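User: Earlier you gave me the apo prediction for this protein. Now I'd like the version with zinc ion bound, so I can compare the two side by side. Same sequence as before, with the ligand SMILES added.
Assistant: Got it. Here's the input I'm using:
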Amino acid sequence: MIYVPKCDTCGELTHVLVDGYTIRDRVFEGVWFMVYFGNGKATHVTPLTKEDAEYLDDFNTKKIYKEVMEFANNSDILICPTCREDIDGPIIGTATIVKLAPATDITAMIQKGIDNSRSFHDHIKKMKDK
Ligand SMILES: [Zn+2]
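And here is the structure of the complex with zinc ion:
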């Protein structure tokens, strides 16, 4: 299984947004990064707008983009570029969990709890829909 960003409203996504604030707090407040996903992980990063790009010119962008990719690959919540709603990041998606499970059993246990509560939730929802 590989991680594919998916928005409840917009469906599967090829790219997601990362809020600059999560990378460098106030320094990048209001700056947005577009992160592209391929083969289950973040492949590259671009500033969202021309203004963001100009602002980032004053920084070591290579290092920052690397940080943004690492964040996107290890996040439980990312943002849909279309509707700006929160979407499940790789930590909740199955790909990274499969990779993390042997090293950190606690992560697998937490994920199992999430999966169980989700399937229960889905089950209830299906019953209601009928
Ligand atoms: Zn969306």
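For your comparison, keep in mind: Residues 7, 9-10, 80, 82-83, 85 surround zinc ion (CB under 6 Å).
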